C-alpha cells in the first residue's frame, strides 16, 4: 500500500496568483474594521484559492481567518481573504507570508504591487506596508473616523430610514418641527 501525501510544493501555484495585494479593501467578517486588517489576493481557479487558504490558516498563527470568495468574479478568478489583528507586527507578518507564497508561485516579490483601500498602487515592501496600514485601532479611527451610515446612504442615493431614538431631546425637536 502506498501512502499518498498531498500538500503544496514549490511552483504548484505558478501563474495562478495575480501579483497584486489589496489591504483593507473589504470589510472584515470577524470583527470591526478598526480591529482587523483584511488582505486580499486574486487567484485563478477555486482549487488554487482553497490551497492558499489552507496554507495560510495552517502556517501562520497570527492569521485569524482565511476564506475564498463564495463565487467567481467575471473573469473566472476568485478572491482569497486573509484576516489578522491590526497591530504593529502586521507588516512584518504579511511580508513573511508573502515571501513563503513566492516559493509556491515562483514569482519575484519585486514584481508585486500593493493597494490600500482602493488607493494608489505601490511596490510590495515592508516599509511601504508599515507606512500605509494603520497599526492600531486608534490609528485607524484617527485616519478614517467613524463614517455615519446615514451620510453614506444619502451620498449613494439610498433612502435614509434611520429614526432618531425617543428621548426628551428628540421629542422636543419633533414638537418644534411639527413632527409627531
Strand element count: 6
Distance between the termini: 80 Å
Strand fraction: 15-25%
Alpha plus pi helix count: 6
H and E string: EEHEEHEEHHHH
Number of domains: 2
What is the radius of gyration computed over CA atoms, rounded to a whole number of angstroms? Answer: 21 Å
Kindly identify the CATH topology of the largest domain: Gyrase A, domain 2
The description of the largest β-sheet is: 6 strands, mixed
Strands side by side in the biggest sheet = 3-4-2-1-5-6
Descriptive overview:
Helix 2 crosses helix 3. The protein has a six-stranded mixed sheet. It is an alpha+beta fold. Helix content is 35%, strand content 21%. The chain has two domains: 17-144, Gyrase A, domain 2 (2-Layer Sandwich), CATH 3.30.1360; 148-180, no CATH class.
Amino acid at each position: 500500500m502506498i501512502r499518498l501525501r498531498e500538500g503544496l510544493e514549490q511552483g504548484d501555484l505558478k501563474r495562478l496568483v495575480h501579483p497584486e495585494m489589496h489591504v483593507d479593501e473589504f470589510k472584515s467578517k470577524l470583527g470591526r474594521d478598526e480591529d482587523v486588517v483584511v488582505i486580499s489576493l486574486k487567484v485563478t481557479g477555486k482549487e488554487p484559492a482553497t490551497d492558499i487558504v489552507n496554507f495560510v490558516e495552517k502556517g501562520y498563527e497570527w492569521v485569524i481567518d482565511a476564506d475564498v470568495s463564495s463565487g467567481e468574479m467575471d473573469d473566472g478568478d476568485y478572491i482569497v481573504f486573509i484576516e489578522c489583528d491590526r497591530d504593529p507586527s502586521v507588516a512584518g507578518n504579511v511580508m513573511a507570508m508573502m515571501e513563503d507564497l513566492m516559493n509556491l508561485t515562483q514569482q519575484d516579490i519585486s514584481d508585486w504591487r500593493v493597494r490600500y483601500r482602493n488607493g494608489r498602487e505601490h511596490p510590495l515592501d515592508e516599509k511601504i506596508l508599515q507606512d500605509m496600514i494603520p497599526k492600531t485601532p486608534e490609528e485607524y479611527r484617527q485616519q478614517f473616523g467613524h463614517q455615519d451610515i446615514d451620510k453614506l446612504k444619502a451620498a449613494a442615493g439610498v433612502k435614509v430610514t434611520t429614526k432618531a431614538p425617543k428621548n426628551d431631546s428628540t421629542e422636543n425637536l419633533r414638537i418644534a418641527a411639527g413632527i409627531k
